[in-house]
Predict the 3D structure of the following.
Amino acid sequence: MKRIVMVLAFMAFSTALYAQDTTDKVVDKAKTTAKKVGEEVKKDAKVVGQGVKKGAQKVGETAEKGYDATKKGVKKGAEKVGEAAEKGYDATKKGIKKGAEKVEKAAEKVQEI
């Protein structure tokens, strides 16, 4: 009976040591995994941050290009409006001159009668 108790005690002791060793390995592995996950999250956050920064720069560049294009378009539009106004002025001037000539001729005809 003494031997059976000793064997059972040895088995219990061995099982306790094995359980402790396994628990330590699991905890170490969990810590290592958590550390790796944390590092990957940091890397991903950095990459996302760089992507956002580049995206913002592209938006700024596109806005500047749009501003320049709009500025050129407005300038060209103003030039066209100016040209049209000049043409309109010239046409009006010619029309008034022709109208005045016709009025003069009509007045001359009336005086002749």
About this structure: The CA atoms of residues 83 and 89 lie 10 Å apart. The chain is about 100% helix and 0% strand. The first helix runs from residue 2 to 112. The helical segments are 2-112.
